[in-house]
Amino acid sequence: MWQRLSNIYHLGVKELWSLWRDPIMLVLTVFSFTFAVYSAASSMPETLNNAPIAIVDEDQSQLSQRIVSAFYPPQFTAPFLIDQSRVDPGMDSGVYTFALIIPPNFQRDVLAGRDAQVQLNTDATRMSQAFNGSGFIQQVVLGEVQEFVQRYRAGAEPAVGLELRARFNPALEKSWFGGLAQIINQITMLSIVLAGAALIREREHGTVEHLLVMPVTPAEIMLAKIWSMGLVVLLASAVSLHVVVRWALGVPVAGSLPLFFFGAALLLFATTSMGIFMATVARNMPQFGMLVMLVLLPLQMLSGGQSPRESQPGWLQDLMLAAPTTQFVKFGQAILFRGAGIEVVWVQLLAMALIGAALFAFSLARFRKTIGQMA
Predict the structure, then answer these.
(1) Which of 49, 179, 197, 359 could cross-link with 41 by S-S, CB 3.0 to 4.6 Å?
(2) Rounded Cα–Cα distance for residues 50 and 343 (Å)
């Protein structure tokens, strides 16, 4: 027993040294838990934020000035007041996402009840801003025109008052959700990549033959890769959660971090087993990378980390309960967002443990079958 634990430990240390000598994987690890987390948190969800808008005011009327003053941060930058000749060059070079053209005699036509039109040019290559911004700009212009015609700026008094109270994120800060959700996604992605790359690296460097002549079993080889790569991901996620999310982004964490990382360790047991299985199917790193994309994207998109599971068909929701990422997203959101304790998330912990055990057994059977072919 002690000999097996010693083998697992020393083989794991060997994997850590191999990772240390692999600059590409080190850069990927650092990037995934620093810049990728920060940028995703700063841009989620896909709403208007400092969208550059230019306005051609050919009317120079009171109404057109009201429309110009209606666009302000944080949805838009301060409007660029330009002439007609600068619209196309500015749109072509990407300086402006929107260009609103107010024609001459616009106010006169509005007050006379004639058909008055404004032109909105949109850079559709910026998809999220173009989609959301076009409708928002239309509402702003129509609202200003209506208030100007009525000569009264006020909203109608509603018959029922709705009082909103936001729990767990009272200020509705977008980065709170984005940063923590991205941590969950990066744990899944990097654990699969590192574990699979460790096995591919053995094949490419020709060290599989060395393992085959050593007095070690396939289970010991797999467990060594799982604990070493899992430890790297766990440490990287802990640093990212404290430095990037809590310090740089200022996102508070509601629940118990030890409980969260315990659940993350269970997820890593499952996802690293998945990575090893995919590495036994792929022949080289390019094939492994393509296989990871085919598996990882559905896991992230359908597990509830990027879109709500409630919007999916019922049969798909039930099917995705067998994925460890779905259980971890539910677990992570309950811990980090709502401050839940183990009495709430024990179901997800049990599910991740069972799924991890099943994936490990399945991957071990595949690994035993193919380890001789890797040499």
Answers:
(1) 179
(2) 43
Read off the tokens for 43. 């841009």
CA dist 239 and 246 (Å) reads 10
Both 136 and 207 in a single domain?
Answer: no
The pTM for the full model equals 0.72
Peptide bond into 23 cis (omega under 30): no
Whose CA is closest to 207, among 3, 51, 371, 9? 371
Asked if the structure places residue 212 within a domain, the reply is yes
Over residues 78-123, the pLDDT tens digits come to 899 999 899 999 988 889 999 999 999 999 998 888 888 899 999 8
The candidate with the shortest Cα–Cα distance to 57, out of 89, 97, 101, is 101
Task: Give CA–CA dist 318/326, Å, rounded.
Answer: 10
Specify the DSSP element, H or E, that contains 35: helix 35-42
**Boundary (domain end) residue, out of 135, 150, 165:** 150
Per-residue b or e along 221-238, where b marks 16 or more CB atoms closer than 10 Å to that residue's CB: bbbbbbbbbbebbbebbb
Helix/strand/coil (H/E/C) assignment for every residue in 91-106: HHCCCCCEEEEECCCH
* Residue 196 φ then ψ, to 5°: -65, -40
At 49, list the tokens. Answer: 């934020």
- Those residues whose C-beta lies under 8 Å from the C-beta of residue 350, and which sit 6 or more positions away, are none
373 CA to centre of own chain: 37
Print the domain residue range for 71: 53-150
CA angle (372 as vertex; 369, 375 as ends), nearest 5: 145
